[in-house]
Structures are given as C-alpha cells and as structure tokens.
Amino acid sequence: MISIATLGPQGSDGYRAALQYSQDAKLSLYNRIPDVINAFLQEDVDIAFVPIYNTREGEIKEYFHLQELLVNGYWVDNLVLPIHLSFGCLKQSAPPVPPEKIIGRSSVFKQCDDYLNEHYPNATLMSVPDIGAAMDDIKENSRYEYAIVDSEELLLEHGFEIRDREIAEHNRTRFAILGGNLNSATGYDASAVITRPLKDRVGMLVDILGEFTKRGINILDLRSENDIKSQKLQIYLEIEGHIGNKLLQEALKSIETDVIQEENSLRLLGSFPRVDMRVKKIRSFGFIGTGDMSTWFAERLENEGYTTLLTGRSTHIGPEEMIAQVDVVIICVPISVTVDTINQYGPLLKDGQAMILLAGESEQTLKAATEATSNGVELMLVHNLWGPQAQSMKDKNASVVRTPRSGSFCSEFEAFLYKHGADISHDSPTKHDLLMGVGQKLPTTISTALAMTLKQHSIACADIGTHSTLTSLYGILAMARIHNQNPRTYAEIMSTGGDGRKIVRSFAENLLQIVSMAEEQNISGLCELIENSKSHLSPEFLAEHMKRSRAVDSILTKSGN
Ligand SMILES: NC(=O)C1=CN([C@@H]2O[C@H](COP(=O)(O)OP(=O)(O)OC[C@H]3O[C@@H](n4cnc5c(N)ncnc54)[C@H](O)[C@@H]3O)[C@@H](O)[C@H]2O)C=CC1
Ligand SMILES: O=C(O)C(=O)Cc1ccc(O)cc1
Asked: Residue ranges of the Prephenate dehydratase domain (predicted)?
C-alpha cells in the first residue's frame, strides 16, 4: 500500500486529491505545506501532494519554495482536482440568521471572494489553518452565527447544513506529486527547472529564453522571485519535454555554460506528464498519406497530446477504418492526387468531424472538398511553407485558407501552428494560389532551368562558387536547395493549376523580351524598364529586403562587407 502526505483534514481538497490518485493509500494529513514536504523528505511517506496552482487563486506561493525544500526526490506527476465549494452553517430549527463570521482556509477565501463580497459584504472573514478543528469548535460551542466555506463533502461530514452550492465556478487546483525517482518519458511531458539566485547581467532573461526558442521548445510557465536574503532574481520555468529529450538537455546545458556561466546554476525539479489546464476539443487526427509531411506533423501533434493515425494505400488500417475513429482527417498526399483522394474519402466523413487539407494548391482542392463532404463537416486548407527537414515551424510562413465551414476544430489546429511560432497569413483560395506562383512556382521553375543550363554548358561546380557575385549567390542557393530534396515535391509545385500559372507564364514572356532588348544592347530601354518596375516596389519593401540580404551576406562572406 502506498503512503501519501497531503494537506488535511479528512474531506479536504488535499485529502480528496490523494484518494483520487490511489484509493487505498495510507494518508498522513498535515496543516501546512512545509510539513507535507518534510514528511516526504524524512521518508515517512512514499509520495507527497502539494497544491501549486488554482484556476481562481493563481499561483500558490509556497510552490516557489519547493526547490529549497525539495533536496531529495523529484516532482514526478500532477493531479488536477475540480473544487466544488459550498457555504454552510450549523443545523438550526429557528429561521437561519445571517452569519456574522465566516470561517475558512485562506486559500478558499481567495477562490470565492466574488461570492462573499456579493452576498456577505459585512461578515467578518476568519481564516484558519486547521478547518477540522474550527468546525469542531463551532459545533461544541453551538456558534450559530458562524458560517463555513469548504467542500460540500467536508461540510456534510462534520454535520453542517449546506446553504449554497458551487459558490466559485471553474475552480480547479493543480497538485504537484513528489516522488523518489524520475519517471520515464510518456511522449507528452514537461520539465520544471529553477535557477539559483542570479547575478545581475544585462539581457540574462532574454538569453535564457532564447535557448529554448531557437530549439523550438515551448515554455509553459515562467515565474520569477527575488531571493529573500540576497534579493537576487530566481527564475522558475516549466518547459515542454522530458528531461531525457536531447534538445532540452542541450538548451539547459547552454543556459548553464553560455548564458549564466556558472556550474550547477540550474536545478531540475522534475519531469512529468504535461498538465493541460486549458480545454482541448480534438482528441485524434487521422492522416491520409504516410509521407514526409504527414510524419512531420504527426510527430508534433503527438507531442501535443493528440492521438494520431497514419494511413495510406498499404497501411495495416486503411483510410476508411481510420475516418470512423478520428475527430480530424488530414489529407496530405501529392498535390496531383489530392482532388481524387478527397473525392474518394470525403463522403465517409460525418458531421462534427473536420477535414484539413495540407496541400500546395487551394482553389481546386477546397472546391472538391466542399462538394465531397457533408455541410456539417469542418473544412480548412493549410499550406505550410517549410519542408520536412525543418526542425521547427518557428518564424516560418504558413498560408491558412479558412472556409465558412472552418469551426472550432480548425481553430484548434491553427492554434497549434500559432503556438509553435508559425507566421500565419489568412488567404482566400485564389490569393493563395496566385502568391504561390510568386513564392514557389516561379523560383522553382527558375532554379530548375538554371541547373539545366549549367549542365548544358558543362559549367564546373568548382567555378560556380568562385565566380558568383553577392547577388547571383541567391539564385544558386535556391537551386541547390531544390536539387537537394525530393524531386517529386518540386515537380508537383511546378505542375499545380490555379492562378499561380499566370505568374510563370508572364515571367517567361518578360524574360524573352528582356533577352531581346539585351541582345540589341538597348541599355537605356533596360534602365527605363528597371526604373518602371521599381516604381511598383515600395521604398520600405526595398530597404527592408536590402537590409535582410546584407545580413545574409555577412553570414555567407568571411568579412561581412
Ligand atoms: N515536402 C515538402 O517540402 C512539403 C510538402 N507539402 C505538401 O504536403 C503534401 C504531401 O507531401 P509530402 O508528404 O512531402 O509527400 P510524400 O511524397 O513524402 O508523401 C506522399 C504520400 O502520399 C501517398 N500517395 C502517393 N500517391 C498516392 C495516391 N495516388 N493515392 C493515395 N496516396 C498516395 C504516398 O504513398 C505518400 O505516403 C503535398 O500536398 C505537398 O504539397 C507542403 C509543404 C512542404
Ligand atoms: O525548403 C524549401 O525550400 C521548400 O521549398 C519547402 C517547401 C516545399 C513545398 C511546399 O509546398 C512548401 C515548402
């Protein structure tokens, strides 16, 4: 039988939380958090429950001192307990008198202060550490003018009469569970770390956070406090990921050695399955397509606690079976077969499910999806403008095409992109397709033609780098990127329909015109042409992009000049 130290008395939140965790646990009840932790440190109990956060009260102060107190053991798990507060008095036969004094724990008063201010503005509030003893005292001395606030269970257990129920809505408390050993990863974990009191250093906090940001690691909670004695800043962080995760380890190591520059300046409080105080509606995603992008997204959605199922033409479970099981169906197959796939599987979706298209073409695919699915099916297209080799989506562009049928499931998926730092543009189907002409079709076409040309003229690779200018380097970089990845991806991009086609076509016409003018040595004509196009490009746009290109130059060239 496992033994648990928690806050009492019997029937209190701490008591109920511990029993919810293990029904036949042996409980040791205390009135103060430090006493609970001490019982754990002295190995009187196997685990301890410490309340750390309440949805109405906010942070519970002692929690920050966990690190001083927790010299052995780890924070290994959490439990979120819904709290149902009631207002009660001693049973009385005469008509009840309005209470003069209201007794409760200080934390409980904070949770229901709206109710007390509204209903009993003149009563005296008396906070007590031992609510059990206070209730015994009220009973023994027949204090009819007193009222008590606590859980209905506790009030009834002590023979009090309930006057009002559920006096603080949306009231939940998160308990940290302390144990002797770190648990292994579950795949949906978080870790808590705390710094030592830090010396003053300009930009320290920003630099600490930057180590997580650049590795695409999300921070769930950040608190800071001044150490009472030294008045130096201490930072507490709760971060996504288990401490066994390589990227997280790297980030913590860099923080110690490069940012704080002091050994043992970070302390791991523990790793535990992540707690979601927010409500998520989606439970599961099913992918049609088992390729690179499906795998990339599925892995990150799993890390968010969603169940994912990848299906294709040769998977154990096929798309038909998968669709019947999931909340959201994601279509992620080559663009050229997306419409056929939608037509084949769309009719199987039921109202209340969502279909999200992860595809590089919008107009035809959304049209097909609107027709192939019932009106109660949510619908949205997301075009991520990064490939599967990207480590994270931080600061990468995403085009999101919402439809009148994009509802809360679609918003939740969009919130997932936003959370991971994607830069989202909301586009109409035609705007997406037109801009992909500029952003994808054309550069891909140019890069493909450039590589063909180099080959045709037997230009040696060694000579390409040594004879490029700062400007021509960009085109070479784009060509190299494209020829380093899956050719199918780029062949598909060049072949998609929609408004993007007209961009490539007019480029080709313009190119031929420029070639003729150049061959005719029409220098003034070419100058005029450049000036004329420049009048369309705003000075701000040009200045900003010149600045960015200089930043690229400084990385690509040794001198940076
Ligand atoms: N790879 C990339 O860099 C990016 C791709 N995308 C989009 O993601 C989608 C998928 O691309 P990837 O995952 O990269 O492709 P991929 O080639 O890695 O995977 C495609 C998947 O579709 C399946 N498939 C192929 N033909 C099929 C058919 N006729 N019927 C059913 N399934 C079929 C394949 O078996 C494979 O599982 C495309 O719409 C693409 O535009 C978006 C952004 C970046
Ligand atoms: O990595 C790159 O340069 C890409 O071009 C990735 C890419 C490929 C296909 C898309 O539809 C969007 C982005």
From this structure: 3-180
